[in-house]
Amino acid sequence: MYAANKTEQFTSALASRDLIGQAKGMLTERYEIDAVQAFELIRKLSQDENIPVATLSAEMVRLGSESATPHTS
Fold first, then answer.
1. pTM metric for this prediction
2. Most CB within 10 Å of its CB: which of 8, 10, 49, 56?
């Protein structure tokens, strides 16, 4: 049970790290800032809005993916 819980936590942490990295990448490209500045921006917004960094990053990636998806009429 303990090992399964640790494995689940590790998997979740890796997924969060990937999403945070993707969100940082989006910000660095869009605003021409470096990765440190991008993370600070995410961190500040997270604190201001009282949203966990991983949750905020996931939402940024989701919204960014939606806007990048071509719309067909």
1. 0.76
2. 56
| pLDDT single digits (tens) 24-38 | 999 999 999 999 999
Sequence ranges of the domains in the chain? 23-51
d(CA 73, CA 71): 7
Question: In the structure encoding, which two tokens stand for residue 20, read together?
Answer: 């945070």
d(Cα 65, Cα 73) in Å, to the nearest integer?
Answer: 18
**Token couple for 64:** 């960014």
